[in-house]
Design brief:
Strands 3-2-1-4-5-6-7-8 form an eight-stranded mixed beta sheet, with helices on both faces. Strands 11-10-9-12-13-14 form a six-stranded parallel beta sheet. The chain is of the alpha/beta class. It has 20 helices and 14 strands.
Length: 439
């Protein structure tokens, strides 16, 4: 099967590469000429383990093609997938301008039966909007060409995206006709063989499924953080509590790790977009709004704990380990590190020394005008003569450091562990002042 994918962002590139890996012929379209040229040369624009090797292999055998020619992309295949970004606009709604552009391009150029697939995360009724746009462009051309709309949300996790795509736990397809069902069954046949259920729904149900899934997981995170905050007040241990409730199969243990809240490219924008979509339809998502409120407040917890021990931060030196919203990714979008850095700068610390295994380069570009923010060559350099260490990302290498060396390098042995990666009793026995979350 021939498939065209617009664009080569995280979802589009992973999806296109994995579809090529199982034998489909895939053309990936993007307007960024330098990105396309880099991809042709095997240079990957995102940090995702194993992706580079798959891109190069499938290009070499001719199953994966990169181009900037949108018309060529439409002519290449009768299955067109839109994987463009849907970033939040100023009102926190999903910005659909790129989705609309792809739909217009399809309507202006198709000359045969086509299935238009929304892979992007889009609000309910976007499929109907795309149908109207494509039909409008066909009417302008005075041509009658059949087409179907499909909503096919992605469920990819950064740093395990290839595994998630190749061995999915479910494949959701919202369809508008039986022709679309047959196309999706053919496209996903190699994956259904791995026992993944192929679920067909209405367009509207499929569009809500992705938002509902992310909102539910975000709610679990905010829930356990609320319990953690209460546990601190009464002298309980959130790790024991999480384990105790997580063993209930109705609850499950995942997403029950207390910390500084969720971030990244999906949960924050999808939670906000679902809240705003609800308002558009006259519905007030009370639980989901609470989820967002708790998460925003949770990001400030480490600063509050720091001030408890150092009431006056002026001219202090603070070290930060971890800048990404989670380990094994270079993604810092909506990461707590931004909020923490901004708060520290506002309190006139003299210096913030940071270290992250993979995000240093992009963060240095974002804060290039801030002279008080130092990007250190390693974790030990970052903490040298610092008045406190704040841990914001649970990178494995932070778990295995020499704790005694950390104590010797710090000016004051204060650790604010926003991810609970260290043992409180061990550190306190060594003379540290230790603050975790919910402990």
């Amino acid at each position: 099967m021939k498939i065209t994918i617009f664009w080569t962002g995280y979802v589009g590139l992973v999806t296109g590469t994995c579809l090529a890996e199982v034998g489909h012929e895939v053309m990936c379209i993007d307007v960024d000429e330098s990105k396309i040229q880099n991809l042709k040369n095997g240079i990957i624009p995102i940090y995702e383990p194993g992706l580079s090797e798959l891109v190069i292999r499938n290009q070499n055998v001719g199953r994966l093609i990169f181009s900037t020619d949108a018309i060529e992309g439409v002519n290449f295949a009768s299955v067109i997938m839109s994987a463009v970004g849907t970033p939040p606009d100023k009102n926190h709604r999903a910005d659909l301008q790129y989705v609309k552009m792809v739909a217009e391009t399809v309507g202006k150029n198709i000359d045969k039966y086509t299935v238009f697939i929304n892979k992007s995360t889009v609000p309910v009724w976007t499929g109907s909007l795309c149908r109207e746009i494509i039909q409008s462009e066909l009417d302008k051309r005075w041509v009658a060409i059949d087409f179907d709309i499909v909503s096919n949300p992605e469920f990819l996790k950064e740093w395990s995206a290839i595994k998630d795509f190749m061995t999915p736990d479910r494949i959701v397809c919202g369809i508008s006709g039986e022709g679309a069902r047959k196309v999706m069954e053919t496209m996903y046949k190699p994956f259904v063989r791995t026992s993944a259920p192929l679920i067909f729904t209405s367009l509207e149900s499929s569009e809500i499924i992705k938002y509902a899934a992310n909102a539910f997981l975000a709610t679990k995170i905010s829930f356990i953080n609320e319990i953690a905050n209460f546990a601190e007040l009464v002298g309980a241990n959130i790790s024991d509590i999480s384990r105790g409730i997580g063993m209930d199969e109705r609850i499950g243990s995942r997403f029950l790790h207390a910390g500084i809240g969720y971030g990244g490219s999906c949960f924050p924008k999808d939670v906000q977009a679902l809240i705003e979509t609800g308002k558009d339809f006259g519905y007030d998502f009370q639980i989901i709004q609470a989820t967002e409120s708790v998460n925003e407040w949770q990001k400030t917890r480490v600063i509050n704990k720091l001030i408890h021990h150092l009431p006056n931060l002026e001219w202090k030196k603070i070290a930060i380990w971890g800048l990404t919203f989670k380990p094994k990714t270079d993604d810092t979008r909506d990461a707590a590190s931004h909020e923490v850095i901004r708060s520290l700068l506002e309190k006139w610390v003299s210096e913030i020394r940071t270290f992250d295994p993979v995000a240093m380069q992009q963060m240095s570009r974002m804060y290039m005008s801030e002279s008080r923010l130092i990007f250190s060559e390693n974790g030990y350099h970052a903490i040298t003569w610092a008045d406190a260490l704040i841990i914001l990302t649970e990178w494995d290498e932070f778990r295995a450091v020499d704790i005694q060396k950390v104590k010797e390098l710090l000016h004051y042995p204060l650790v604010i562990d926003g991810r609970n990666i260290w043992n409180r009793s061990e550190l306190e026995s060594m003379g540290f002042t230790y603050e975790g979350i919910g402990k």
